[in-house]
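A quick aside before the break. I want you to see a complete sequence-to-structure record at least once, exactly as it would be stored in a machine-readable document. Don't worry about memorizing anything.
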Amino acid sequence: MKQNQKITFLCVFLPLLCFAEFTAEQIIGIGYQPGDRLALVYSAFDVTSIKTTCLEWAMVESLPPEPDGTHNYVWDEIDSLVIKHQRSGIDEFCIWLGCNCWWATCPHWSEITTKDRRRPLPEYEEDFYEWVYNLVERYDGDGIDDVPGLLYPVKYYMMESEAQQFYFFEGCSYETHVEDYLAVLGIAYRAVKDANIEVQLGLAAVLFPDMFDDFPDTATMFDRLRIVDSIGLASPYPDSVGTRSMRFMRETICSDSIYDFVCFHPLFNWEGLFGQVNFIRSIMDSAGIDKPIFADDAVSGPMFYDDGFRPRLPEVKDSLYNIIGNSAHALHPIVDPWFRANQARSVTKNFVVALSLGVQRMWTETSQDWVWPWLTGMESWAFIGLVDYNWLFPAMSVPRPALRTLRLLKEKFEGYRRITRLPPEEDLSRIYLFRFHDGYRPDMLCIWFENHIDEMPEDDIPETTDVEIDFFPANRRILMTSIITSRIDTIAHTDTLFTTASGRLIIPLLNETPIFLEDIGSIGITESRSLPEKITISAHPNPFNSSVTIAVDCRGLINQTPTVEIYDLNGRCVAETPFSQSESAKPLSTNAPGAYRWHPAPSLGSGVYLIHATVGEATASKRIVYLK
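That is the input. The structure line, written in tokens, reads:
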């Protein structure tokens, strides 16, 4: 067993390291959503933002225009994706655009790529413009040529992905790679703004492998960029003037007149986020640019690899993936829970760190495991789906701990406007501490102890440390909430700690699992009137197929009984308290006046319903999914 340490963290005396404004609605999303099969599942877990898989030009316009210039667009697939997700309650989309079109793009010039994303030939650039224009117009919600049934406008698009790699965007030649991408981006930007000035287009060209995971200095970082170029990840040819990757990133980011936001891919360890975001921002600052930074393809699980600058478990990587991907393997019951726990930790750290760095949106990947990982590559991203996918009944897919943790994060982030990382003293570099503040809720802390060790599944006794924090007032009750790391847990584990008379809080056995700390009142006082008037709703199970337990937590609202109403997506009230006897919705106990069990009437069909609770002037809402 590893020996515990004891560290005192006097965070009240430390200056602020960095802070950023955010909202929980803006930041939390899921990427690589290939279809509408999981829309109900993600809606039930309060996911409101989705990034799609690539929508290629040829998928909508597979044949050239008619001689008279008429375009034959086929919108069925993207229409279904958008409309069904919106009907499930997901109101924000980011559509990933690809300029691949067999009849319009320049011919192959290289043998190093398996993709066909190249710049349209000059005679077809106007057709590319028309495709993007009509796409944006179809989903912008302005009432002009909108797709029937559109509930919310689609506000975000990204042009290509990891375009600095020839593997994803090869342009028309090596020499014109940067210019080709900027040309495509410029045409798309003009089309987007001509369709709707409010819609935003992102520069989605920036990729960093694990270059920043170990906090390299500037000289090391540039050496690594040169290595990346020479091995072909970004380019098959070395560039005698600096690096091609650096030129690509600088020239595209500095072309700020043809994009609205920069989107990068944090594909490896979450610690690399610090260097990645600061590197992008340094390029912006040098050119006087102030654009939002988004992150997508944020890997939601631990990455194991045998190359790169910081290899992780290279000797056993393939064995681990074979076990994770084979539920019949004898070691699967040991390795899979370990992997899923690390996935939940990775999701939490990605979002918390991204928030602290000012990243305005992050889409974590991926919605489901890859179908054939043995053909597409035995890598972490093949196994980081957020559900155990049910091929017969997708809406009954079982959420993994990372998805339950995503919902917990959204609940915890709600009500705060800023997050600040509190800088550690030199001997506390393994402690990560973040303060959520400037909202209608009392300040909250998120903290974890990072051991910087790639532990194996058999290392079931993690390294821990005792931490003392001088942050909260004296004699207070502190709610400690751990993220969800186990498949058997449907809700987060909580415990109550207490500050001393001097205001010292002792956190025993802190480990790599992030916890949240919230002040919930004075010691010895069962109800704290200093708490804000806020109510929260929980529903279990969700989705449900017969009845659902609804619990309304009335924080700071003493001796008041909530009024609960349930609506369908058409705004029709289908049930309200006091529920009728036929709905089996009497209070569960006199000790829990805000707890009910609702059994939908036989006339109600499957779908998304909205719980609306009111206590005085405080209100709250929550989506539930009924699978009849």
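Two observations worth writing down. The chain has 13 helices and 28 strands. The radius of gyration is 25 Å. We'll return to this after the break.
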